[in-house]
Structures are given as C-alpha cells and as structure tokens.
Amino acid sequence: xxxxxxxxxxEEHGITLDSMLDTAMELYIGNNPGETRKRLxxxxxxxxxxxxxxxLLMAALLLEGDFEVEGDPVNLVADxxxxxxxxxxxxxxxxxxxxxxxxxxxxxxxxxxxxxxxDAVGGFIAGCMTKLFQEDGE
Length: 138
Fold this sequence. Notes:
- This protein is an all-alpha fold.
- The chain has a single domain (3-137), classed as YutG-like.
- The protein has helices spanning 3-11, 17-26, 33-47, 51-66, 78-91, 94-105, 115-137.
- The longest helix has 23 residues, at 115-137.
- It is globular and about 40 Å long.
- 34% of the residues are buried.
C-alpha cells in the first residue's frame, strides 16, 4: 500500500495530514514550533510508508467499519493495544508515556474520533513525536 492510499483512507474518516500535525503540535512544549512541525511532517510521511504501521492503522480502520461499539466501553482494550503497538513500534518504550499523554488529553482530532481510530492515530502521533525528540538527542 502506498502512503497516499492510506492517507486517502484516513481522510475518508476526517483524518488529514494537517489534522494529525495540528493534534501533535497542540501538546508540544518547546522552541521553534514551525521547524518542529516541518520535521514532524517528514517523519509522519516516512512512517505512513512503513508496512507495519500501515497494517495496524488499516486494522483500526477496518475495525471501525465492521465492529459495532457504542461509545468507548471501559472493558474494550483492543483499541488501546493497537495504539500502544503503533507508538512503541515507532518510538520505542518511551513512546508509551507519550501515548498515554495524548490518549488522556485527547487534543485536536483525537476528541472527535471513534475508539479504534482515536487510539491508533494517537499512538501514531505519540510514536512520531517521541521519535522526533529521540533524533534531537542523537
């Protein structure tokens, strides 16, 4: 799958590249947000090409379409597991903390999404933000 195809599928659910970047930057604390957003965009586009990230995001998309869930029940953990897997795949164990930060705050587009997509996209954003900060430290 090409990253453009995945972005198109996400856009069908109201998740655009800009909305993901806006959501990521909403919780960003630091200098030079314009440069950070630019670097984040490059990273997001790179990971949208990764077959493992594509598979997990597609799983969330398919589950939203084929799995009936009302609200976000507390006993549903499969959505959290998808988000955690995406975050940790991209950013390692440190991304887990970022995932929970985005998951509890639900900034931007995350507040509008159904259970599987909010956690999958939140995990994707958390992983990319963590990876971005790790690259800064190298």
